Amino acid sequence: VVAAIALVPGVAVGYLLAGRFRELLADRDVLPSELPLTVGPLPALATLLLVAAAVQLSARCAAWRTSRMPATEAVAESRSEPRTPSRARTTAGLLLILGACALSVVPLLSRTVLGASVTSVAGIVAAIGLAMSGPALVKSAGEAVVRRLRPGVAAPTWLALSNVRAYALRLSGVVSPLAMGVVFVLTYTLTQTTVLAATSDDTRTGTLAQYELTAPALGGLPDGTLSAVRDVPGVRAAAPAGTTTVVWEYDELGEPTAESASAMILGPDARGVVDLGVTDGGLDRLTGATVAVSSEAARTRDAGIGKRVRLVLGDGARVDARVVAVYDRGLGFGPVVLSRELAAGHTTTGLDQRALVRTDGTR
Q1: Is 41 part of any domain?
Q2: Residue 339 and residue 284: Cα distance in Å, rounded?
Q3: Contacts of 109 (CB under 8 A, 6+ apart)
Q4: How far is CA 291 from the centre of its chain?
Q5: Strands 278-281 and 308-312
Q6: What is the pLDDT of residues 55-74, one digit of tens each?
Q7: Pseudo-torsion of CA 65, 70, 75, 81, nearest 10°?
Q8: Fewer CB atoms < 10 Å away: N or C end of the chain?
Q9: To the nearest whole number, what is the mean pLDDT of the chain?
Q10: CB 123 within 8 A of CB 107
Q11: Distance separating alpha carbons of residues 242 and 345, to the nearest angstrom
């Protein structure tokens, strides 16, 4: 009955918000913006069937043991807890919660997408630990509050807290799923939004150029474009830039590994238009077969200054490049930056994709 009543507003609100959620997904490139929204009865029918099946399954599982007990024994168990929480179960649950707390610190030490994803793992571990230690925690909390009650406390308050203490197993069966739901929603949702915010902040802070010059109809910027732009009064710096896709081959735990990633293409004059947060080396060294890598990639893939990295470029060409700079803003600019000479001849047209222009603000 409760599920049927809840379905009516739930389905109605779902149809009302469908258009808004489609816009949000399209804005984040999860769905193509050209994909139309189709409204029909099938989602409501599927929701009805799934909720009905879940309610039936839950009710039958909950009543399975009690329905097969003698009536007198069932009545006796309904008046008192059938057993006390297991000490081993409680200890294991608390250890899992402590482990989840330790895992939740990883994003503070590793500012990468992989580091942020550990938060979701920590949420799962914490939820399992809470389910295991929930009865003992609920009982302990109830006893602690009851001990601190004033003599003149209201009867409903005393009865409610006594019920918490006496029926900890049953109450934890309600509290634990609710807490698990909150943990899952917060960890998975906030992980994505935090990564997006950090990426946006890296890009915004590291981009010094106010303008971007492109010529997609020509396949790139014609020769002489940069010189002409630099001669414009008020232009402080102008540098070519582009993007490509590379496959980075490296060894991880003694095993060969390959990872595809987006890579920027910059030259030694890029310092005036972008600030990657260089911590070692310099972008002015991006000449020839050289690359700059993020600090996280340098640490995890043994790719510090002077090391050689193996890359497969967009056209399938294998190159061996030397690391000349390490930077911090890997979330916003990717794990690797190629020199202009290294990418030359391995892109679609061979022309610069765009020019980043920084002015003095007078024009």
Answers
A1: yes
A2: 10
A3: 115
A4: 27
A5: unpaired
A6: 888 778 767 776 777 766 66
A7: -50
A8: N
A9: 83
A10: no
A11: 13
Q: Would you call 254 helix, strand, or coil by DSSP?
A: coil
Q: Which residue has the higher pLDDT, 325 or 6?
A: 325
- Rounded Cα distance between 46 and 41, Å, is 9
At residue 83, the pLDDT reads 61
Residue after which a domain boundary falls, among 161, 189, 206 = 206
Model pTM above 0.70:
no
Domain total for the chain? 3
Among 222, 237, 214, 242, residue whose Cα is nearest residue 341: 242
3-class state of residue 362 by DSSP: coil
| Distance from the Cα of residue 321 to its chain's centroid | 31
Bridge partners (DSSP) of residue 352 are: 221
Residues 269 and 219 in one domain: yes
Tally of CA atoms within 13 A in the half-sphere of 42 that contains its CB: 3
How is residue 306 written in tokens? 């002077």
Whether 198 and 293 map to the same domain: the answer is: no
Site of tokens 């090391």: 307
Closest residue by Cα to residue 216 from 352, 121, 25, 87: 352
- Contact criterion met (CB below 8 Å) for 89 and 133: yes
77, 103, 130 - which closes a domain? 77
User: If you ran DSSP here, which 8-state letter would residue 270 be given?
Assistant: G
pLDDT tens, position by position, 215-270: 888 888 888 888 898 888 888 899 999 888 899 888 887 788 888 888 899 989 88
Give the residue among 244, 242, 236, 235 at the shortest CA–CA distance from 214. Answer: 242
